[in-house]
Amino acid sequence: MLLVRALSTQDSARSAHIIKPELGPFSGSLPWGLGPPADVCCRKDHHIDLLARLQRRLRRERMSDLWARLGLQPEDRVLDVGGLPFNWSLLPRSPRLVMLNVALPSTLAPGPPAAWVIGDGRRLPFKDGSFHLVYSNSVIEHVGDFQSQRQFAAECRRVGLGYYVQTPNRRFPVEVHLMRPFIHWLPRRLQERILRRRKRWFLREIRLLDRGEMRALFEDAEIWHERMLGVSKSLIAVRHPPRG
């Protein structure tokens, strides 16, 4: 059974609906998409600031590419798994958005109006083919081991007529969550020695993927590459939704 209520906002012209499925407790520790993204964290290092600016530019280009290549329309129903509405404000027009996360944002997230669902990306509370497109940006690397990632991928494929699932490329030399070069290529013991206590979350919560693993998870997808300075920074599994 779905419980629906209105989320009050300071802007009376905008409201969001929360669709809360009666699911069991989520076993993970990270509220996907609710923390500050790597490209907006405040840092003092000049090289990290440059990477952050490039990240912001890539985010805009990614959404523009999504709009143009997939031919999204305002009447299309889109499920965003683990995200926030801000990305969708970068489009010329917004589709009919449903945002799914393990918790609600503490304040109304900026962006176009959206319905909100509390749920687990590994067991989505929707029927097969419920959405024109399932979208996920930098979430699959957070969901756990490879089996959990397989479950997440299978649910995106099941619920969406098409899907667009992006994740950082493990082969990219800079680890984009930490904004540090090469650390994700080091042996585990060396990573533990290098990372201070406040960075240990990376070892617990992040499992990066390469192209071969993305191909194994999304067998019916095209694998797009998002490049930074000519190097593949992100991998995007795409199945085009049908038209007509």
Could you name the CATH homologous superfamily? Answer: Vaccinia Virus protein VP39
Return Rg in Å.
Answer: 18 Å
Largest β-sheet summary = 9 strands, mixed
Amino- and carboxy-terminal Cα gap:
32 Å
CATH topology: Rossmann fold
The gross shape turns out to be globular
Under the CATH scheme, the architecture is 3-Layer(aba) Sandwich
Low-confidence stretches: 1-18, 20-44
Proportion in helices: 10-25%
State the CATH class: Alpha Beta
Helix count, per DSSP?
5
What is the count of distinct domains?
1
Q: Using DSSP, what is the number of strands?
A: 11
* Lateral strand order in the biggest sheet: 1-2-5-4-3-6-7-11-10
Strand content: 25-35%
The secondary-structure class comes to: alpha/beta
- Average pLDDT score: 80
**Helix-strand pattern:** EEHEEEEHEEEHHHEE
Q: What attributes characterize this protein structure?
A:
single chain; 244 residues; alpha/beta; Rossmann fold; nine-stranded mixed sheet; 5 helices; 26% strand; disordered N terminus
Give a concise summary.
By secondary structure, the protein is α/β, with parallel strands linked by helices. Helix content is 24%, strand content 26%.
General description of the model:
The chain has 244 residues and is of the alpha/beta class. The chain has a single domain (2-239), classed as Rossmann fold (3-Layer(aba) Sandwich). Helices cover 24% and strands 26% of the residues. It is built from 5 helices and 11 strands; from the N terminus they run ββαββββαβββαααββ. A 9-stranded mixed β-sheet has the order 1-2-5-4-3-6-7-11-10, sandwiched between helices. A hairpin with a 2-residue loop joins β10 (222-228) and β11.
